[in-house]
Amino acid sequence: MPTARNVLSPDALAMVQTIAETGSFAAAARARNMVPSALTYRVRQMEDALDVLLFDRSSRQARLTAAGAELLREGARVLADIDAIANRVKRVATGWEPQLTIAVDSIINHATVMELCKDFLAPDPPTRLKLRDETLSGTLEALTSGQADLALGVALDAGTAPGLQREPLGTVRFAFVVAPHHPLAREPEPLSDDVIRRHRAVAVADSVQRGGGITVGLLPGQDVLTVSSMPAKLDAQLRGLGVGFLATCLAQPYMDTGRLVVKSVERAEQSIPFSYAWHKGGKAAQGRALQWWLERLKNRVTRAALLGLIATSLPH
Amino acid sequence: MPTARNVLSPDALAMVQTIAETGSFAAAARARNMVPSALTYRVRQMEDALDVLLFDRSSRQARLTAAGAELLREGARVLADIDAIANRVKRVATGWEPQLTIAVDSIINHATVMELCKDFLAPDPPTRLKLRDETLSGTLEALTSGQADLALGVALDAGTAPGLQREPLGTVRFAFVVAPHHPLAREPEPLSDDVIRRHRAVAVADSVQRGGGITVGLLPGQDVLTVSSMPAKLDAQLRGLGVGFLATCLAQPYMDTGRLVVKSVERAEQSIPFSYAWHKGGKAAQGRALQWWLERLKNRVTRAALLGLIATSLPH
DNA sequence: CGGCATCATTCAAAATATTTGAATGAAGGA
DNA sequence: TCCTTCATTCAAATATTTTGAATGATGCCG
Q: CB of A35 under 7 A from strand D?
């Protein structure tokens, strides 16, 4: 007793295609190096399993019924799927992961990440790439929760989790900067906490999904404008909507042109080391995609470019 | 020599699923009423065809490799597709079309069409329904060009094509109406062509795809605002953006509340009969979906509702 | 209209593929 | 260490598919 799952093999669907293309059972049998009765037998098997006639045989050449035409149409898509799957399974067996998810902190230079993606994807690897934008403790959490395979831009004091490997990217200096038209621009230095507290701060929202998240650099009782990334924080401060620390590498072009002014403050100035992290496991446990990225991240210039410390010009 | 197209049958994919779910070859064999060696043989066939190991056999229970996991993941979708196709082919064989396309003129009452669609789709027929909005000669052309199976709202003087069947929906009266704040509202009646020509007309664009299309009711040299449907024409005239004829059934609520004013004109007033049309062919050549619609369109109340001559309350 | 080529099918035999069941070696739990 | 249960091997049994000859039907061409 044949069932649909037994007889609707890709080869059977391909046979229906050949019949439609050649116009007759006889021609299709010749094209497939079969004897006509074998082809008749197999079509019958399909018709029995589906309990419908796929072909109208009242004329000399058998013609597709409406049901047969429907099977032809839908079957073409399944055929393409199967061929793609077979190809994909074979390629994954070579050691490449089906997918690699990278959590990218908003401090990380976006253009550099894109350049790396371009290099990775150029030889058409089997691995699909997925980027997730994160901020603050959300970057590491994506990794520890298993939602990401690699995290770029983890602050070194952001806690430690067992089972993770880390390597340093470099250190980012933060400066307290304001727009030149902001009232704080005219205050005598160094600025005290009391003076700063009277003005709105610009803060980046933590992208963490579990727990309360962290806030950085806020003074008690201070008004705050919350944005979703470091570039957005920069923009808000350029517009004089608020004040706060910015990575000097990010703010430097604007400091050079006078659109931002550095103010010295009584608080300790910040200088934070960032790293990248991935799950522990020897080289044998890592897919080739992750190995590719870890290899590229070893490069000193790449690291600096990711932190925006130099212009994007990666070595190959 | 097995190939991917031979061995990646839906039944084989289902077998991989059972192995993953039960956790071992032995349990999967029991679940499928097979002897263990038969299952081993079939897995081997798949592995040979794909030239990859789908299972790691170094432990007591065989475990999926990365390639095997990929096949499991992608295979689930193909399985669902195949089952849906088998179901669909069988239902199409019952006489229902895979798809029915209806061209609906913009004079037709939209809510009534939706009510009919709802009734048609309620018993979950195999036929997919596709509506196309058309205007003027585009409505009939969709039918004659084979892009629609049924046309609702064909003007009776819109030409005849061989091979079509027609039935009347009813007659729509058109009145020349203007917004009360429009300058023409204060002109003495009946309005001559010379007076009308000085004011912008609102015209509906013909949706026809071949040929130049037709324009209705424009005077030579008259300014025109072209919109895409009768409801849009009504809206433009309510806003006093232009003037022209409107179906009285469409304009009546606004005439009653004084938002539109009827003006008598020297030109002959329009009263146009509309019909619906489909391809010639006896009942045996029509799918059951088209038959359903033709049966419903025989009803006198349905016809009036489609022309907006009565409120939408269809008999079942 | 008749003849002929070619179509799809039937049928039984041949060939091939799949399944069975017993035996074996290995993993892993108590 | 012993025992259960795992996956595999192997040859025989069973099932399925293919073959090839014969047949009846369609439809083209002279």
A: yes
Query: Would you say the C-beta of A239 is within 7 Å of strand D?
Result: no
What pairing do the DSSP bridges indicate for beta strands B99-105 and B128-134?
Answer: parallel
CA dihedral B271, B276, B278, B282 (to 10 degrees): -110
Structural contact between residues A310 and A301, judged by C-beta atoms closer than 8 angstroms: yes
What are the tens digits of pLDDT across the range A26-54?
Answer: 999 999 999 999 999 999 999 999 999 99
Does A285 or A258 have the greater pLDDT score? A258
A4-92 adopts what CATH topology?
Arc Repressor Mutant, subunit A (1.10.10)
Q: What is the mean pLDDT of chain B?
A: 85
Distances in Å between the Cα of B196 and the Cα atoms of A24, A123, B182, B199, B260 are 66, 69, 12, 6, 16
Please tell me which of the candidates A51, A54, A92 has its beta carbon nearest to residue B67.
A92
Q: Which residues contact A139 (CB under 8 A, 6 or more apart)?
A: A103, A104, A105, A151, A152, A153, A154, A158, A207
Interface contact flag, A52 B90, Cβ < 8 Å: yes
- CATH code linked to domain B103-170+273-306: 3.40.190.10
Among 3.40.50.1980, 3.40.50.720, 2.60.40.650, 3.40.190.290, name the CATH number for the domain at A171-272: 3.40.190.290
**Chain B residues with CB-CB distance to A56 below 8 A:** none
Write out pLDDT tens, residues A198-231: 888 888 877 776 666 666 667 777 777 777 778 8
Looking at CA atoms only, how far is residue A42 from chain B in angstroms? 13
Q: Which of B93, B97, B287 sits opposite A52 (nearest CB)?
A: B93
Q: Which residues in chain A are closer than 8 Å to B9, comparing Cβ atoms?
A: 5-6, 8-10
Higher pLDDT, B152 or B129: B152
